[in-house]
Design brief:
CATH topology of the largest domain: Endonuclease III, domain 1
CATH superfamily of the largest domain: Hypothetical protein, domain 2
CATH architecture of the largest domain: Orthogonal Bundle
Order of helices and strands: HHHHHHHHHHEHHEH
Structural class: mainly alpha
Number of domains: 2
Number of strands: 2
CATH class of the largest domain: Mainly Alpha
Distance between the termini: 36 Å
Radius of gyration: 20 Å
């Protein structure tokens, strides 16, 4: 949302250049314009602007959540987002990726996801927990991931905390799903602006994770994690995936 009209020209310069380029080249393919909102403003999953331009849909194109507009995001939205995950490997992967996403767009993380898998030993918490100073320095030099020292240190620290939770509860899955009573919370959002950034459940999860030694687990990050691993169904009721996930409960 633009809070100051005077900033409009500066914020939309990339959009203007893209539109000028299209007119100069007489391009007919509208695909480059599908995600102009991602250029003009930050992309926050589940909280995309309700003023986002309507995409032209054929009779065969399903209705999706507003944030899924690039090919990469559509694939993730259609196959993973909101699907209940109970494997500890998957849960650890999203714990690390959601922490890495802090301050960035999820699209950036999706683009780097395969690089993360290669760099972090396919998200094996036992391997990551053993990373020493040299390994962390190699990660800092890896252009395929987010090269942030605090986030890399956090991934190693979280791996060690993850193993402690597994030892105490038998699995991280058994521990983390207790914050929603063991089954997905079903919401019924009609507008993107209705989707919360945090909830009482994510607050409780964040507080307990921090107490157990985890980093980059603020309530907003925890809620994004809950959305990703299906602890909550935050698909729009108009989205075709909403009914698909309900049918699998």
């Amino acid at each position: 949302m633009l809070h100051n009209v005077k900033r409009t020209d500066r914020l939309f310069t990339p959009v203007k250049k893209l539109m000028d380029a299209r007119s100069l080249k007489n391009l007919s393919d509208p695909k480059p314009l599908e995600c102009l909102s991602l250029i003009a403003r930050p992309w926050v999953r589940g909280r995309a602007s309700s003023n986002m331009p309507n995409q032209k849909r054929s009779s065969r194109t399903p209705t999706r959540c507003a944030w899924a507009c690039s090919d990469l995001a559509i694939g993730y939205h259609d196959k993973e987002w909101g699907v209940p995950a109970h494997g500890d490997g998957t849960l650890f992967e999203f714990l690390i990726l959601e922490g890495a996403q802090a301050g960035l767009s999820w699209e950036t993380i999706l683009n780097k996801r395969e690089n993360y898998r290669a760099a972090f030993d396919r998200f094996d918490p036992r391997a990551v927990a053993r990373y020493d100073r040299r390994k962390k320095q190699r990660l800092l030099n890896d252009a395929g991931i987010v090269r942030n020292r605090l986030k890399i240190d956090s991934a190693v620290k979280n791996a060690r905390a993850f193993l402690r939770v597994q030892k105490e509860f038998g699995s991280f899955d058994r521990y983390i799903w207790q914050f929603v009573g063991g089954k997905p919370r079903l919401n019924a959002w009609r507008l993107p602006r209705q989707v919360p950034a945090r909830t009482a459940e994510s607050d409780a999860m964040s507080k307990d994770l921090k107490k157990r030694g985890f980093n980059f687990v603020g309530s907003t990050i925890c809620y994004a994690f809950m959305q990703a691993v299906g602890m909550v169904n935050d698909h729009s009721v108009k989205c075709f995936r909403y009914k698909v996930l309900i049918s699998k409960r």
